[in-house]
Each structure stands twice: as C-alpha cells, then as structure tokens.
UniProtKB/TrEMBL annotation:
PANTHER family linked to this entry: ACETYLORNITHINE AMINOTRANSFERASE, MITOCHONDRIAL, AMINOTRANSFERASE CLASS III
Cofactor note: Binds 1 pyridoxal phosphate per subunit.
One Pfam short name: Aminotran_3
Source organism (scientific name): Streptococcus sinensis
EC annotation from Swiss-Prot or TrEMBL: 2.6.1.11
Protein encoded by which gene: argD
Protein name: Acetylornithine aminotransferase
UniProt cross-references to HAMAP family, sorted A to Z: ArgD_aminotrans_3 (MF_01107)
One term of GO molecular function: identical protein binding
Alphabetical GO biological process terms: L-arginine biosynthetic process
Reactions catalysed, as given in the entry: N(2)-acetyl-L-ornithine + 2-oxoglutarate = N-acetyl-L-glutamate 5-semialdehyde + L-glutamate
C-alpha cells in the first residue's frame, strides 16, 4: 500500500546512497548513473558540494527575501558574469519559466508567446501553456490563452504566427523531452536577428541544457547569440531544488517591488550548493574536458552500435545525447538497469543519456559496453 498519488511510474528499486557517479540501492548494488537524476547531479555526488551544504546547514538554512542575502548576490554574480543580466531565484524550472513569461508580458505590454511544437517547459499552468505537447495538458481544462506553436527549426512558421500582440519567442536549443533534438545554428541566429529587429523578446529555456550540460555553461554560447531572458534549474545546485531566471537589465523596471516573488527562492542551502557548483564548473579547462568527453562518448557509441539495425541515429550536444531506436524503450531501460547502468528515455523512440560531466574514460567505456550488450540482447 502506498500513501502517495500514483502519478509516477516508479521502478521497484530505491537508491539509498551515492558516491561520485554511482548510485547504491537498498540491497547494496551499485549502478553507474548515465541519467544524473534527469540532468540534475551534473557533477555527480560531489564531495565539495556536499561540504558546502553541510557548512551552510550549521549556520542558517532559511532566511526570507525580506532581508539581504550575500549568497544570492554571489551566485547571481557568477551566473551573469560577462552578460548584461540580472537574476531572480526560485525553486524549479517550471517556476523559472513562469517568471520568464510574466517578465516578457509585463516588460513588453503584450501577451502573445510563441513556442515550438514538441517543446517542454514545465507542468505549471503558464509553463504547460508554453509546452507544445498536448499529452501533458489532457484533463486540466482550459489552458492559458495567447500561446501558439511554431515548427522547430522553421523560421517561416514563426513569422506566420507573429502579430501586434507578440511579446516573446520561447525555445529550447536542444529539445530534450521530445527526443534530444538540437536546433540548427542558422535557424537560431536568424531567429535572434528577427526577434531583435521586430522588438520581440527571445527567451531561451536552459533548464536542461544549462550548467555545462552541452559543453559550455549555457547552450546559447554555442549559437553566438545572447537571449533577452534565460531560465535555469536542474544542474544549478547539483541536486538541491533551485531555479533561476536571468533577464537583461533593461527589463528591470518590469520586475519592480511587489511584482513577483518566491518564499523559498534563493534558499540558503540551495545558494550554497549553487555557488560551489558554479565554482567547479568554472574551473580552468573544465568545459573543454566536457567537450572532449562528449566526442569520446559519441565516437565510442557510434563504433559500438554501428551496424545494429535497431539503432537509427545518435545525436546531441555535449553530454546530452539521444540514441534513436526501433527497439522497445522500456525493455532497453530495464535491461540496462539489470546490468548496473541507469539511462533515460525521451519522446517515443529515444534512449536519452545525461551522464555526469565528471565522467571518467573508464566509466565511458563501461557505459558504452553495457549499452552495446543491451541493444544486442534486445535484438
């Protein structure tokens, strides 16, 4: 008997301990984690992040936003370094996207938000309205109005939806939940130019792609653009609940006193973990090493799965990788878990890999070897 709502399809396994890039279950078995808790523990279970949490817990773990927070200021400074942004802290990616929608509407004085088919921005009402997947909206009644959905990587479809009430365009630079689909570079640059020329705000959802996941701190850095608004969560505090919205300073007047808030946003524990996470991510050569690990992992996957008729494509950006397959996803995930490897799914036919950025070469080889065995056995 469970006292929980059954809105999750939980595997009959409980992780009770973690160390580095490995999880241990209640029976003492170890698993190599190629999911990072759905893109959250980007540094693995990192001892220095743990130490930062413990130090903060010994001092004070909550203080309301009625008072100064030097920790929030330090994290914000790290997040906006090199950019003309201000930061707002909340508790999740959905909350960050809600804040972005509110800021875009209030700053522009308009209501229309264009996002993309098959996008995913969260499960609260505003974030759900921005999401271009009907399956997550079923049963919840009328959604928020003034949202429309363009075709991903198709600028003409964006232009066709623009009208005098268009406030912003909102997109993921890699659509994660729908199949690990990277945006075309030319499309992104042309979209950014179009938005700038037409005074439409560009919102980039970096909830899954941010914090080094793609080999740069922010995925938009791969595309040579600077969005007006950026949303973050998942890997920001390496497993402690947190979200953030970054917006250009010129939008500051729209978020004036009393316009938006969050009781737990910028919580001291989350900020302590986020600050140490950012320090680790900004270690010299760290991002270059992530990019090298990405090249190695993708290359090894291509070699190991070459010729397998069930493997249709391998794609991604950095350490955000999708393996498109005609095999049964649930069987693949279960067999991988039986062999001590944790992986994810995306869309209807993609195995999604979000391994820790701290992955070693030996762990790459082990993970690829396990996946090779799994695909062969399922065939």
């Amino acid at each position: 008997m469970s006292f929980l709502f059954q809105n999750y399809n939980r595997a009959s396994i409980e992780f009770v301990k973690a160390e580095g890039n490995y999880l241990m279950d209640s029976e003492g078995r170890a698993y190599l984690d190629f999911s990072s808790g759905i893109g959250v523990t980007n540094l693995g279970f990192h001892p220095q992040v743990q130490a930062a949490l413990l130090r903060q817990a010994e001092q004070i773990w909550h203080s309301p936003n009625l008072y100064l927070s030097s920790l929030q200021e330090k994290v914000a400074e790290e997040l906006v370094a090199g950019y003309d942004y201000l930061a707002f802290f909340c508790n999740s990616g959905a909350e960050a996207n809600e804040a972005a929608i509110k800021l875009a509407r209030k700053a522009s004085g308009k209501q229309g938000i264009i996002s993309f088919q098959q996008s995913f921005h969260g499960r609260t009402f505003g974030a759900m309205a921005a999401t271009g997947q009907e399956k997550i909206k079923i049963g919840f009644g009328d959604g928020l109005s003034h949202f429309s959905y363009a075709i991903y990587n198709d600028l003409a479809s964006v232009k066709a939806l623009v009208n005098s009430d268009t406030a912003a365009v909102m997109l993921e630079l890699v659509q994660g939940e729908s199949g690990v689909l990277p945006a075309d570079e030319q499309f992104v640059q042309d979209l950014a130019d179009f938005c700038r020329q037409n005074k439409i705000l560009l919102v980039v959802d970096e909830v899954q792609t941010g914090m080094g996941r793609t080999g740069k701190l922010y995925s938009f850095e791969h595309y040579d653009i600077v969005p007006d608004i950026v949303t973050l969560a998942k890997g920001l505090a390496n497993g402690v609940p947190v979200g953030a919205m970054l917006g250009k300073k010129e939008l500051a007047s729209a978020f004036n006193y009393g316009s938006h808030g969050s009781t737990f946003g910028g919580n001291r524990l989350a900020m302590a973990a986020a600050l140490e996470t950012l320090r680790q991510l900004k270690t010299p050569d760290f991002m270059e090493e992530v990019q090298e690990k990405s090249r190695l992992l993708v290359g090894e996957l291509q070699t190991a799965l070459q010729g397998n008729p069930r493997v249709l494509a391998i794609r991604g950006l950095g350490l955000m990788i999708g393996i498109e397959t005609s095999s049964n996803l649930s069987v693949l995930v279960e067999k991988a878990r039986e062999k001590g490897l944790i992986v994810l799914t995306a869309g209807t036919n993609v195995i999604r890999l979000l391994p820790p950025l701290t992955l070693s070469e030996e762990e790459i080889q082990r993970g690829v070897g396990t996946l090779k065995e799994v695909f062969e056995e399922v065939d």
